[in-house]
Specification:
Radius of gyration of chain A: 19 Å
Number of domains of chain A: 1
Mean pLDDT of chain A: 97
Shape of chain A: globular
CATH architecture of chain A: 3-Layer(aba) Sandwich
Low-confidence stretches of chain A: none
Oligomer: homodimer
Number of strands of chain A: 12
Distance between the termini of chain A: 20 Å
Structural class of chain A: alpha+beta
Largest sheet of chain A: 8 strands, antiparallel
Largest interface: A-B, 54 and 54 residues
Strand content of chain A: 15-25%
CATH topology of chain A: Beta-lactamase
Order of helices and strands of chain A: EEEEHHHHHHHHEEEHHHHEEEHHEE
Helix content of chain A: 40-55%
Chain lengths: ~350, ~350
């Protein structure tokens, strides 16, 4: 097996200190590979980078309409959020709309990702609940979907175990992933994600195809195409909800609007749709490094999205960024190496 | 350039999700390579992994004796600590012994590494000072050394800029690194470390040699050999001070005592002395991953240090460890891949 190429390098002074290898694919909605690097045919776990695909049944099933979900709520259904107060409130509001509360969430609790939020909570004497879990919006979406799928059955009884692969909620989610990626999930490695739902190994080529399809509607049945369009519009309208203060996804979508939908996943995965360009993107750092996958996504946005000069400068600052030490001194750079 | 081998793999379920490449060297005090993997001749920045070498002048100069530094204080001079209350108090006590305070520290301030300590401070309405910096003990040692080097000069004036390469304190530190590693610093890349002191690129082969020498005294002048022995004894006596609650270095040294001195550095570097085995060790993960460098160090301890069965189980649990999700479910493993 050939090693994937070095995509990102961290410099200290003028010397390369660390390097990050990986692979990426830029694909159109016909599945043609427009550009790529490294092995894009090895199945990888996309983790949270496919939350938009996982949220498709929430919309297509009619659950989003039934519960009157707005842009904020649909955006957080696709999010890995910071656990900031607005995120927590919006996730809670989805559960309330479906007539349940956070006891229905099966994602587990963790302290918010954002340190300053953690400290604010600690200062206020509070501890985290499942609503602070970065996946709480996605899970609130699963719960809303489950409440509709329950029909006349007892909601709480029906929802129990909704994270399991064989539960009707996860079967709907799996169907959406299979249909958009064109990759058979029954025959591929399956793992358990951080929030306890299944994650299926899928090649970058197929993940990129799914986002080209989601961004264009091409190759999807009508309801699914409409659902993808609705979810992307929601994220474009409320980019804070998909990540939060200071986060790459939020900052990029705030600035570039409907030209870019991007979503990070754990272990160095990133997926994106560039709808105006008709392209889907998927990348994975071999080592799982978050810092590196952001650099690569920025470099691909620079290369494949139409930007004006100011926007190019904004995006380039992520693709070649200073490393600063505890005294605020510039000590090196983290940059696209290709 | 051939890629370094994969040393660590992260599994999700039974599939490999991420991999970490790197290089390691195990060397005796004559400089003979006992075992190695990857490129051990490329200079790498050792960062905090050489804090013991950087603390040698503190002892050899007589400063440690002049200020009556005890085991706790000498151990924290070699530390990247958690910023726990005991760490902060001991670093402060070193400055007090030298007749200065934390205004003398030039390492910068940051919130403690350990989340729970951060939250405790926030709950108490406190903010971090330079004493909470993980390097504060090392810097307190530099300040003590500087106070002795100052002689009759004004201490505060003399200390100003002690982090700069040309300052007498850093010249002493550089001399100790050059003498122990046998690597000329004038001709090698130099960067600025997180705490603003210089870090010099040195091959793993030479870093391992330095620790074989530090652990045995072989190849060092008498005062330096004594200083190395004194510092290792201090860390063995007070392993909490070198890192802190839950940390690899602290837990390993607590359990294995004088058989292992190990010290992590930023960007996936680890150095160690196995004094009873007469060996020095140095490793660097290409991608800078901390999680991976601990796995490799554990695997090398398992292989090169004499352990009883219970100790072997203890160490092996670091070399092949479960990955657990937010619900506490086992979702994979992080393990030595070689």
């Amino acid at each position: 097996m050939t090693a994937n190429p070095t995509l990102v390098e961290a410099l200290r002074g003028s010397a390369v200190e660390s390097t990050h290898r990986g692979a990426w694919a830029v694909v159109d909605a016909d599945g043609d590979v427009v550009a790529s690097a490294g092995d894009i045919d090895r199945p990888i776990f996309p983790r949270s980078a496919v939350k938009l695909l996982q949220a498709l049944p929430l919309v297509e099933s009619g659950a989003a309409e039934r519960y009157g979900l707005n842009d904020e709520q649909l955006a957080i259904a696709c999010a890995s959020h910071n656990g900031e107060p607005r995120h927590v409130a919006v996730a809670a509001s989805m559960l309330a709309a479906a007539g349940v509360d956070d006891a229905a969430l099966e994602c587990g609790a963790h302290w918010p990702y954002r340190d300053v939020v953690q400290r604010e909570m600690a200062a206020a004497g509070r501890t985290p609940t499942a609503l602070h879990n970065n996946c709480s919006g996605k899970h609130a979406g699963f719960v809303c979907l489950g409440c509709v799928l329950a029909g006349d059955a007892d909601k709480r009884a029906f929802l129990s175990g909704y994270v399991k692969p064989e539960h009707p909620v996860m079967r709907e989610v799996g169907d959406a992933i299979e249909a958009t990626t064109g990759w058979r999930l029954a025959d591929t490695p399956r793992g358990t994600d951080g929030c306890s739902i299944p994650t299926y190994a899928i090649p970058l080529r197929h993940l990129a195809l799914a986002f080209a399809r989601a961004g264009s509607g091409i190759g999807l049945r009508e309801g699914r195409a409409r659902a993808a369009k609705r979810l992307m519009a929601a994220v474009t309208a409320e980019p804070f909800m998909v990540a939060g203060s200071g986060r790459f996804d939020t900052r990029i979508i705030e600035r570039l609007g409907e030209r870019v939908f991007c979503k990070v996943g754990a272990e160095g995965v990133f997926c994106a749709a560039f709808p105006k360009a008709g392209l889907g993107v998927a990348l994975k750092m071999d080592d799982g490094a978050s810092r590196a996958c952001e650099v690569v996504m920025a470099a691909l946005i620079e290369r494949f999205v139409r930007l004006d000069e100011a926007e190019r400068g904004f995006v380039h600052a992520f693709a070649d960024q200073p490393l600063v030490n505890w005294n605020g001194l510039d000590v090196g750079r983290l940059r696209w190496a290709a």
